[in-house]
Amino acid sequence: MEIIQTLLNINLDYLILILIVIFFTLEQVLGTQFKFNNRLHHLYHNFLMYVALFLLNIFWAGLIVFTIQWFNTQEIGLLYWIEIPLWSKIFLGILMYDLSSYWFHRTAHYLPVIWRFHRVHHSDTTMDSTTFLRAHPLELMLWFSVSEILTSAIFGLDLTILGVYYLVLFPMFFLEHANFKYPKWLDNTIGLIITTPNLHKVHHEQDEFYTNSNYADIFIFWDRLFGTFKYKPTEQINFGLEEFDEPKKQTFWYLLKSPFLNIRRIQSDKNNL
Predict the structure, then answer these.
(1) What is the pLDDT of residues 102-123, one digit of tens each?
(2) Number of domains the chain is built from
(3) In which domain, by residue range, is 192 found?
C-alpha cells in the first residue's frame, strides 16, 4: 500500500511533462521510424492542446473527484459486494476502466457529434509522441471522463484505483504514439494481450477501414474479443485524415474550432474491394 501511495503522490501533470521531454528528446537522438520536418512546430501546436485541457480541467477535475468520492461513500458498485485483496481489486479496476474506454472510444468513431471532437486526435498526419497531446479538451472532459465516472459507479472503484490506472495509461500512450521503430516480434507475442505501438499505429491509418479498429488503450484482447482487431505493416501506414491534410488544418486554433465546422469526412473503402 505504501508503494501505491508513493506513486499516487506523483503529480500527473508533472509526469506528462517529464514524459514529453523524455520521449521527444529520444526521438531526436535515436533513429525514428518516419522522418518529417518542423518537429518543434509540430510539438508547439500539439502542446497547446494540452495547455487548453489543463486550464479547463482545473475546474472539471474537482467535479470528477467529488462524484467518485460520493459513489464510494455510498458504497455503490459491484466490488463493494465482495471481499478481494487490494492488488486484485486494482488489477480488475484497470481492466474495467480499459474495457469502458474501449467502448466509449469505439462509439466515438460512429456517433457523428462525438467524432467531430475525436477526429482532432486522428488529424495528425505526422505522428510522434506529442500526438498523444492532440486531443480536443471538450472530448476528454465531456466524453471520456463520463466513461471513468460510470465505470467507478458500476464496479465500485475508488480514486486510488483510478490514479493507478492513469499511471499505467499515460506511459502507454506515449509509447504507442512515439516515432520509434519497434520490432515486429512484439506484435506476435505481447501483442496478443497488450496494445503494442505498431498495433496502435494501425488505428491512426488514414484509410477508414483501419481507422475503425484497434480501439483498446492497454489490452488489445478487447479488440480481438469484439472483432475490431486489424493489422497492417507499420511501414505501409499513412497517418492522419485526408480532410485535414494541409498545413493550416494542423494548427492549434483550427483544430480547436474544427468540431464546430462542417468538414466532410473523406472515406476510403479500397481495402474492402
Answers:
(1) 999 999 999 999 999 999 999 9
(2) 1
(3) 2-268
